[in-house]
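step 3/5: co-fold with iron/sulfur cluster
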Amino acid sequence: MSEGDIRKLLLDKGQGLFDAPPQKPIIFTHVKAANLLLSDLERYSHAFVLACVMDRQMKAELAWLIPHRLEQKLEGFAFPKLAQLSLSDWGQLMRYPEPLHRFPDLMAENLFHAVRRLELAYGGDASRIWEGRPASATVVYRFLEFQGVGPKIATMAANILARDFKIPLSDHYSIDVSVDRHVRRVFIKLGLVPDDATDEKIIYRARSLSPEYPGLLDLPSWEIGRNWCHPHDPDCAACYMRRVCPSSVA
Ligand code: SF4
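step 4/5: write tokens
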């Protein structure tokens, strides 16, 4: 089996996920109310953006719960209510009675600045970040403008908008894979990169395999890593890559 076979299987899976009908709500966490809030781009597009801002240095599932937990504390999550909060209010919300994030003070600051940016640049309507069929680079850049958001989260945000929310973009060239432990492990096991590959090498490898939409490889790789390609004792017999994978033990 060749690299072409591996590429085809991953891309077919990625395209299938991209073409799938929209999920309602999208599953971000194990809490239904949190998923409903994050999926409601009509009324709470800022919840999705603020969850992206929180998605650092803690488990993603817990970070994506934060907008819902703030909503419970504030008894609502309408943007005007958030825009009234001072930096000190955000600090109180994030720190007490228990910290909502591993770094509550830093994240309180990031939330405060994110809400100010949404107000000043987008009139409080976060959906303006992606309205009008923008280029993928524009969306990624707009996420990078939020304090604390780096390329990994910015490309992840653009990928979720395109793939899961079905937001139309004029291209997908600038949506890279968001390298995490699952994506890294699967790229290595599939022989796409060497064991010591840097994040940049993995990103450029994905670009070389899928130049028009590198991020199409992201979810298939992540799912393989989470479901079958465990660091120890991979379940190759159940993995759909077993016939083409050079590391398969099935
Ligand atoms: S076949 Fe096995 S080693 Fe290869 S990607 Fe799947 S689980 Fe990992």
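step 5/5: annotate
The longest helix spans residues 104-122.
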